[in-house]
Amino acid sequence: MSGAVPYGLLRHQWPMLLTGARVVGHTLLHALKPAPRPVAPTVAPVVRTIAAPTRELIEQYLAWAGAARCYEGELPPHMVSQWSLPLVGELLLRLPYKLTSVINQGVGLRINGPLPRDTPLRIAATLDRIEHTPGRIKVVVVVDTGTEQQPQLVQAQLHMSFLQPGPRPPRAPKEHAAEPSWNTAGLWHADRNDGLRFALLTGDFNPIHWCGPLARGSVFRGLVLHGFGSFVRSYEVLVQHGVRFSEIDVRFVKPVPLPCSALSVQIAPTQDDGWRQLRLAGSGDTVHLAGRLR
After folding, report:
1. Coil, strand, or helix at residue 80?
2. CATH topology for 23-32+45-163?
3. What's the Cα-to-Cα distance from 267 to each of 26, 222, 237, 262, rounded to whole Å?
4. N or C: less crowded end of the chain, CB within 10 Å?
5. What b/e string do you get for 162-183 counting C-beta neighbours within 10 Å, with b at 16 or more?
């Protein structure tokens, strides 16, 4: 999507902006008073009932996703990133890890039923598991979204890692399996302001997505699109081209640089177990997303 940047949507993102302010305070506190080596804690779920997203926000989100005039009477299931981030942030604030070191690594969605519009949403964020590995701590958070009567209409698994100081272990050599027969479901592209647009739509204002000077000083050496943003655009390419599924799971392999053209959403034939592999391919042999659906 190109055109004007919808700055007015900022007023819909106060819950996430407040969470961001708490993250800054948490970071400063731990910098002044370093904590001992953390252990995996037991963290209670965070459960909230929130007002339904406004029509303006939904329509702007769908237009950006490439799904304008779709989902009549429903919410797109991948919009979970907008309403779940404040709860996930609150959950992560209860962990004894440095929040500025967290990176998103993937997402899985299971759609059990349509999410109705104009209905308060019941959201529950639960810490599913923590895994300590050399150089990073892997965290999986499960977010259930629904109504009071049907609380698990959409179930999301968010995969994150907290990067730890010290040397990284050498990467184990990968076994190269035979490539499936890829078919291109469709294409999409991103312009320089798409990171800012997605930030205004979801409340994820990490500056590597919209602030050029700070992004150039990051490990990415420039602006990159949110992993969830790449997922949303690829999801809608599949849906708009007739690919039907109720479960999808992807990993963010390499960020999409901004701007970026000729992004190809590719899908493989159905396997014996019902799954189909998918990927988002860029120029050359670059793979940005990889996963499966059924």
Report:
1. helix
2. Thiol Ester Dehydrase; Chain A (3.10.129)
3. 42, 29, 11, 16
4. C
5. bbeeeeeeeeeeeeeeeeeeee
Query: Could you say which architecture CATH assigns to the domain 183-293?
Result: Roll (3.10)
SS3 category, 262? strand
C-alpha of 4 from chain center:
23
CB contact at 8 A, 115 and 238: no
DSSP letters for 201-222:
HH----GGGT-HHHHHTSTTSS
For the segment 63-98, what is each residue's pLDDT rounded down to a tens digit? 999 999 999 999 999 999 999 999 999 999 888 888
- Tokens 């429903």, residue located: 74
The Cα 22–Cα 11 span in angstroms is 18
Query: Which regions of the chain carry the CATH code 3.10.129.10?
Result: 23-32+45-163, 183-293
Whether the full predicted model's pTM is greater than 0.90, yes or no, is yes
Report the C-alpha gap between 237 and 9 in whole angstroms.
24
Q: Which two tokens stand for residue 228?
A: 């969830």
What's the angle, vertex CA 288, arms to CA 246 and CA 264, rounded to 5?
75
Quote the distance between the C-alpha of residue 263 and its chain's center. 18
**pLDDT tens per residue across span 192-241:** 999 999 999 999 999 999 999 999 999 899 999 999 999 999 999 999 99
